[in-house]
Write a structure and sequence with these properties.
The complex is a heterodimer of chains A (about 425) and B (about 300). With about 425 residues, chain A is α/β, with parallel strands linked by helices. Chain A contains 17 helices and eleven strands. In chain A, the strands form three sheets. Chain A has a five-stranded mixed sheet with strand order 2-1-3-11-6. Chain A has a four-stranded mixed sheet with strand order 8-9-7-10. A two-stranded antiparallel ribbon of chain A has the order 4-5. Chain A starts with about 25 loop residues before the first strand and ends with a helix. Chain B has about 300 residues and is mainly alpha-helical. Chain B is built from 13 helices and no strands. In chain B, helix 1 packs antiparallel against helix 13 and helix 3 runs antiparallel to helix 10. The longest helix of chain B is centred in the N-terminal third of the chain and has 50 residues. The chains are: A alpha/beta (about 425), B mainly alpha (about 300). At the A-B interface, strand 2 and helix 2 of A face helix 5 and helix 11 of B.
């Protein structure tokens, strides 16, 4: 490795915000960890080239680990040799932060190479915060959104859903779109395809907006208890509404229908009028010339709420070159480097989103609009979320969907089991 | 036919006996071959499917009903998979071969010497040390992964081939065990004759033991080669620079984030697997012999 000779760094001129010339020494080599591969590495290479052009004394080494990324990172944490800047998926945030591997960013944000936090779109800064302290900056994300098939709405003579619609509107629309065309008792077109993740209809992240919209939650803010949250009247109301959509009103294809139709895109084939999922199918939908569709923010219950699938950037707590690592992190999360990533996924940087016309975009506009209602992820409150909280929640919802039964009793039981599991981990 | 009733009865009995034996043998053969063909097909199917997928256009891979024979045959997949500028396959191959050669040489030399010691030489507490050696087989890999990583990190060996090759020069329990069992089956007279002629211990190993142990050495060479070839975790952890990656790690790069180019992945996988298949094809006899011999004697 040719060691860069330290010289005076040139004044940086980012487009996103004019920052004062940093007093810190920005030089040397930093390592960057990503789990991406293939064409997803293109923005990385572009961002690194841009950064190195700004700071000729800096060498940025990209370490792309497309498989086994988490395993490799945990091993490196144990040896104290993780990359200076690394990507973190939303499922790993609690684990990595509680291990002490993630550097607190607030001192840098307010330091001599500061970051203007008003650059970020609403709600996204808070996702990277735990107890009000900033640990991560957003790389890319996808909130949940409802897609609707305009042709089916026109057929049924329905108005297109508008932002601010309610659970009642949502249910009424779904009922109006559910039809048994040939009268054989088999539904041929459903009103709504509810959130499912590879066919998993108990996907917590997809269901969670219902819970938050009802004013409920699944876990206390300190991450230690679920009783009074997972089985609160609000959460039970939300789960009741969700289960009723399948069982009572039958406006959504159930687990067995989804199994029978596995591999069929129900929305693109016009078998469902609406679809509740993330942003990821948008490009495919746009590419389909026969699909006439729109997007709308999630309906509101007692309140507006949405959740998010998210990936962020972290600064390694044992990095030997933190100032340079911070300069690079800032560059890819909020400055010119973020523009490279914006071509591939939703950006968190408001000026870039505006330059792209995202806020006015007929499809992306409603998705960005809904960001103001983001609810913090309970996943970040404990590293045992998936094994204790999520597992018990999913098991209860699955039983309710398949067999019905009393929602309150099922949630009481799930909360007790989740608390016992959390207690074992303390 | 003579009119001797006894002879008649005998020949009839003999006839029916041989006939029943022949039918039995026939039934036996049919069953055995049916099982072999059935199981053979079962094991060969994924392999066939991989080759077939490697020669398809991407949109044809997931069609239903499945297309068994690709049409058109896309030989270009191989070129595209191996000529990707982001994936320097020639480098991955070179790196893998460097590691293979270093590991195989080290393992064969060190394990032969150690195994001979356990098989023939006398030393205080020999059996105790042998038990300790076998006990290391019981350690699950994940348990030693992090301590090993920290050790090599302290030595400054991370991001080099050293952590992947040097340990092979210090013996490996399974190979030592296999060799020891084999060496013990070699007649002692041969070694004594060599000893009488003035051969040193190392010469005895070199000129008597090794030539007689080709089957077991082949088995260990092939198993080591295969394990290294497919090893994902160790190179993944120790190598940070993509230019040092091995084939197994490089292959993972085909899993792009937004879409997995399944046909290219399969084409690359076929190429990566080919050396193993060829190797086994040529060394098969020695390999099977080695396995059965050590199995009998072990």
């Amino acid at each position: 490795m040719p060691e860069a000779t330290p010289t005076e760094p040139p004044a940086e001129t980012p487009t996103a915000e004019p920052t004062p010339e940093p007093v810190t020494e920005i030089s040397g080599t930093i390592r960057v960890g990503s789990w991406e591969s293939g064409e997803a590495l293109d923005p990385w290479n572009r961002a690194i080239a841009g950064f190195q052009a700004m700071y000729p004394d800096v060498t940025v080494q990209l370490e792309a680990v497309p498989q086994g990324y988490g395993d490799k990172l945990l091993t490196q944490f144990a040896a104290g040799t993780a990359p200076d800047v690394f990507m973190v998926g939303d499922g790993d945030v609690a684990r990595f932060v509680q291990r002490g591997a993630v550097e607190l960013l607030d001192p840098y944000i307010n330091g001599n190479n500061p970051l203007d936090l008003s650059l970020f779109l609403p709600g996204l800064l808070e996702i990277g915060q735990i107890d009000g302290q900033t640990y991560l900056l957003t790389k890319d994300y996808s909130p949940l959104v409802v897609y609707y098939n305009k042709d089916l709405f026109d057929e049924a003579g329905l108005d297109y859903p508008q932002a601010g619609w309610t659970w009642d509107d949502f249910l009424a629309t779904a009922q109006a779109l559910t039809v048994d065309e040939d009268g054989d008792g088999q539904i041929d077109q459903w009103g709504i395809q509810l959130p499912n993740h590879w066919g998993d209809v108990t996907w917590w992240r997809g269901i969670s907006p219902f819970v938050f919209q009802a004013g409920g939650d699944i876990l206390s803010s300190d991450g230690t208890t679920t009783t009074g949250y997972m089985n609160s009247p609000e959460t039970v109301e939300a789960i009741q509404f969700y289960v009723d959509l399948y069982r009572e009103h039958q406006v959504a294809p159930g687990p067995e229908d989804l199994g029978a139709l596995a591999g069929v895109d129900l929305f693109q084939t016009g078998m469902v009028g609406m679809l509740w999922t993330g942003r990821w199918p948008l490009a495919d939908f746009k590419a389909n010339p026969n699909l006439n569709f729109g997007t709308v923010g999630l309906p509101m219950g007692k309140q507006h709420a949405n959740s998010i699938c998210w990936a962020g950037f972290a600064l390694y707590s044992e990095s030997p070159n933190k100032d340079t690592a911070w300069a690079f992190l800032k560059y890819i999360a909020a400055e010119e480097g973020a523009e490279a990533f914006a071509d591939y996924a939703l950006t968190a940087v408001a000026p870039i989103a505006e330059a792209q016309g995202l806020t006015e975009d007929p499809y992306d506009g409603p998705i960005i609009e809904d960001l103001q209602y983001l609810h913090p992820l309970p996943e970040f409150r404990t590293m045992y979320f998936s094994e204790c909280v999520e597992q018990n929640f999913k098991a209860a919802v699955e039983r309710l969907l398949l067999q019905g039964g009393d929602v309150q009793a099922a949630m009481d039981e799930a909360a007790a089991a989740a608390d016992a599991c959390l207690a074992r981990q303390q | 036919m003579s009119g001797n009733p006894l002879a008649n009865a005998l020949s009839r009995g003999l006839w029916s006996w041989t006939r029943s034996r022949r039918i039995e043998k026939l039934v036996h053969d049919v069953v055995v071959y049916a099982l072999l063909v059935g199981l053979g097909a079962l094991f060969a199917f994924p392999f066939f499917w991989m080759i077939s997928s490697a020669l398809k256009a991407e949109y044809q891979i997931f069609v239903w009903p499945p297309q068994w024979i690709p049409n058109p045959v896309m030989w270009s997949n191989f070129a595209e998979a191996l000529a990707n500028p982001l994936l320097p396959f020639h480098l991955f191959f070179r790196n893998t071969m460097i590691i293979e050669v270093a590991v195989l040489t080290g393992r064969l030399i060190s394990c032969t010497v150690v195994a001979y010691g356990f098989a023939r030489l006398t030393a205080p507490g020999k059996n105790f040390w042998f038990a300790i050696l076998l006990a290391t087989l019981m350690l699950p890999k994940p348990v030693v992964m992090i301590p090993k990583f920290i050790l090599f990190n302290e030595l400054g060996w991370v991001n080099t081939f050293l952590p992947l090759t040097v340990p092979a020069w210090f013996g490996e329990a399974y190979a030592i065990f296999l060799m020891r069992q084999f060496f013990m089956s070699v007649p002692v007279d041969l070694e004594e004759a060599a000893h009488v002629d003035g051969a040193s211990t190392l010469q005895t190993i070199r000129y008597v033991i090794v030539p007689l142990s080709i089957p077991v050495l082949t088995v260990i060479a092939i198993l080591s080669f295969k394990d290294n070839w497919n090893d994902f975790m160790e190179p993944l952890i120790y190598l940070n620079n993509a230019r040092l990656y091995t084939l197994a790690v490089g292959l993972a790069f085909f899993n792009g984030q937004y879409d997995v180019r399944m046909n290219l992945l399969m084409a690359a996988s076929v190429v990566v697997m080919l050396p193993l298949v060829i190797l086994f094809f040529f060394a098969q006899r020695a390999f099977v012999e080695g396995i059965t011999l050590t199995g009998l004697k072990g």
